Amino acid sequence: MFYQKSKAVLRQEGLAASKKLGQNFLVHKYTAERIADLADLRKEDTVVEVGVGLGALTAPLAQAAGQVIGLEADSGIVRLHTERQDLPANVRLIHQDVLKADFCALAAEFGRLKIVANLPYSISSPFLFKLMEDSAGIDFAVVMLQKEFAERLLAKPKTKDYGAPTVLLAACATVERLMELRPEEFHPRPKVDSLLLRLVFQPVPERVRQLGDFDRTLLKRIVSAAFGQRRKTLSNSLAAAGLLPKEDLLDCFAEAGISPATRAEQLSLEDFVRLVKQFAG
Hints:
Layout: H1 3-12, E1 25-26, H2 29-39, E2 46-50, H3 58-64, E3 67-72, H4 75-84, E4 91-95, H5 103-110, E5 113-118, H6 124-133, E6 138-146, H7 147-153, H8 164-170, E7 174-181, E8 186-187, E9 194-200, H9 206-209, H10 216-228, H11 234-240, H12 246-256, H13 269-280
Parallel strand pairs: 2-3, 2-5, 3-4, 5-6
Antiparallel strand pairs: 1-8, 6-9, 7-9
């Protein structure tokens, strides 16, 4: 739907973009078609669309894939599509808060998931962690994010954008930049630019396979503690988190070949995993 048509539909139905839900509807047809094309779907695929909105992206997804499972948190939007019957026949619309969605159950029913998400920026972080937790049932996710947040996921060590989400996502997925979107692509217009990323969980990235087996729960604890006080040295930030007594910490650093005076942003994923293995050993 184009901008003016989107506004007219909302007005006719007595609806408006919800600030509480953080809604910014994608309204440009070419952009929606480009996103669906970049998702690289096949006719035998079932794709989960997070945030159906006014259906701008749903239509090209339905054309590219065999089936679309649309998750939409806004009851007014669900009512609009139910009454108008304006979505393609191969779309199954579900009134669902995505943070409460059972991706494991969906994967059991439809096979490994392909996810395309245009979600409120306010839930980007919890949604990202949900993807990581449920990654065993996900092939890939194509996700629209606030540019500033997306840049953190693409960041390299020793940069200010490099943080806990960067490391934890790298431990289970490859991250690829697909396209940038300007505010005018949406209604209402957000105050920031957006980036579309592809997060590939399967096949397991070669970098992750080379790490071998390690305790992912412990990795999350160590990484979160390290970046939680990123101005402190690693020995001080991890000691403050109570993960190990200071003397044992120093032994782990020595065995991992990492200086205790190092700060979190200086460590690569491989460095953190070596530290995890020493903690667990």
